[in-house]
C-alpha cells in the first residue's frame, strides 16, 4: 500500500501527486495541515524529523524527499508509464531540472508563497510570539523557521526575498529557452522534468502571477503550461486536495501582491 503525507499548498507534495497520477498508482492520503503547524506533531516528527511533507510510506517503509520519492516510484513500479528516459544521457537532462528544483527553485517558491500569501493568513490569525513560532522546530529547523518569521513580518522587504523572486523568474526564462528547442523540458517526450516544474508554474498561476509569462513575455512557457493543465492527471493531482478557502486566500493575496512583483521584475 502507498500512503502519502501531504498538504494542498505544498509544491513538493503536488509534484509527487502528479507523478503518482501519471503512473496511475493508487494511494491513501494523510493530510498534514502546515498552516496549522501539524508538521510539528510528535507523531509526524517520528515519521519525518525534518517536519516537512511529502513523505511516502510504501508497505510500512518510509521514503523522504520528493525527488527521491519520484525516483523510487519509477524504480519500484517499472510496469507503469515511464517518467525518466531509457538512455543515461537523456536521464541527465531530466535530473538537471529536478536538481535545480530541489536546490534553487523550491526555496525561492517557499519565500514567494509566504511573502505573497501565507503571511497575510498567519498575521490575520495572530502570528503569536517569536518564541512560540520557533517551538517544535527542533535544532535543525531553527534557522529555516527564523527566516520564515522574517518573511511573515517583513514581506517583500525581508532579506534575500527580492533575489529569490528574480531567481524564480530566471527559471521561467531557462524553461523558455529549453521549450524553444523541444516540446517538453528535457526533449520530445513528457518526463519527470515536466512533472517537477509544473507545481511551480501552478503556484504562480494560483497567486495571480501569470503575467510572468503571459502577454507574449514567454510564449513557449505559456503553451507548455496550457498543455500541462490539459492533462487528465492535472486536476486530480493539483486541485482535489486544495481546500476552497486556501485557493481563495492565495488568489486574493496574490492579486494584491502582483503589482509589487511586477515592479520588482520590471514587467
Ligand atoms: N526537499 C524537500 C522539501 C520539502 C518541503 O520543503 N516541504 C514543505 C512544503 S513544500 C514543508 O513541508 N514545509 C513545512 C513548513 O512550512 O513548516 C522535498 O523535496 O521533499
Automatic annotation (TrEMBL):
* Residue ranges annotated for the GST C-terminal domain, each copy included: 87-246
Q: Name one GO molecular function term.
A: transferase activity
SUPFAM superfamilies xref list:
GST C-terminal domain-like, Thioredoxin-like
Q: Which residues cross the membrane?
A: none
Q: Which residues form the GST N-terminal domain?
A: 1-81
Q: Which one Pfam family would you cite for this protein?
A: GST_C_2
Keywords in UniProt for this one? Transferase
What is the name of this protein?
Answer: Glutathione S-transferase family protein
Lineage of producing organism: Bacteria, Pseudomonadati, Pseudomonadota, Alphaproteobacteria, Parvularculales
